[in-house]
Amino acid sequence: MNPSFDCSGLMSSIQKVILGQNPRGRLWSTHSFNGNTAPAGWVRNLRSPFQIGITNAGVGHTAGTLAGTNVESRGGRGVVVGKAARGWNDRLFTSHYGFKPAIQMPTPKGFAAGGYPPVGQFSIVGENGPELAYFSSPAQVISNTDTRSMFREAAGQRSGGAAPNISVENHVWVGDREITDIVDHRITVRDAETGAAIETGRYV
């Protein structure tokens, strides 16, 4: 989820995904809701898999609950999902609406055990609690258990074993001679010259 979403923009994007549309762009503002007057598809006090709460106090605010998971865009924190987010029935909100088309929406599936999320639908993932994910192309989720196992193998620490020592040799060649041979040869010649100079008292 893009943290730059404002509250109504985030709810609009979820609505668009439910309708099979591109999630970009805002459809309405909180002030579009007033009593029984609401944007198309929204019904006051309707129980639905996607519900929102509305307040028009101040600049207005809205948050929603999608298939039991709270979703909110809150100031500098950006998009908040799960228990830390306000839901549709938070006491901040004075009006509540359900999105009628969501009644036919498939319930988002969790992928804690790994698997292949459906394209074009919401799924639930998350390493720090539930996070809504929307995959626009085929993807795979690898379970936490398998991911940790892969990390242990990569570090050579399976069954408490020590990480392997890795040695890397780097050889640089100039023509048909390795550069280390050339350097060693020059050092040897210079040492010989220095030794001869010291013996004859002409060390410079």
Structure, described:
The chain is α+β, with helices and mostly antiparallel strands and about 200 residues long. The protein is about 20% helix and about 20% strand. It contains three helices and eleven strands; from the N terminus they run αβββββββββαββα. Strand 4 and strand 5 (about 80) form a beta hairpin. The chain is elongated and about 105 Å long. The protein starts with 6 loop residues before the first helix and ends with a helix. The mean pLDDT is about 75.
Distance between the termini: 71 Å
Strand order, biggest sheet?
1-6-2-3-4-5
- What percent strand? 15-25%
The count of DSSP E runs of length 2 or more, i.e. the number of strands, is: 11
Order of helices and strands: HEEEEEEEEEHEEH
Structure class: alpha+beta
- Contiguous runs where pLDDT drops below 50 for at least 5 residues: none
Helix proportion: 10-25%
For the largest beta-sheet, the strand count, sense and barrel status come to: 6 strands, antiparallel
Q: State the shape.
A: elongated
The number of helical elements comes to 3
Radius of gyration: 32 Å
SSE arrangement:
Blueprint: H1 7-18, E1 42-44, E2 50-55, E3 61-66, E4 69-73, E5 79-81, E6 95-99, E7 109-110, E8 122-125, E9 131-134, H2 144-154, E10 173-174, E11 177-178, H3 179-200
Parallel strand pairs: 7-8
Antiparallel strand pairs: 1-6, 2-3, 2-6, 3-4, 4-5, 8-9, 10-11
What is the compact description of this entry?
The chain is 22% helix and 21% strand. It is α+β, with helices and mostly antiparallel strands. The protein has a six-stranded antiparallel sheet, with helices on one face.
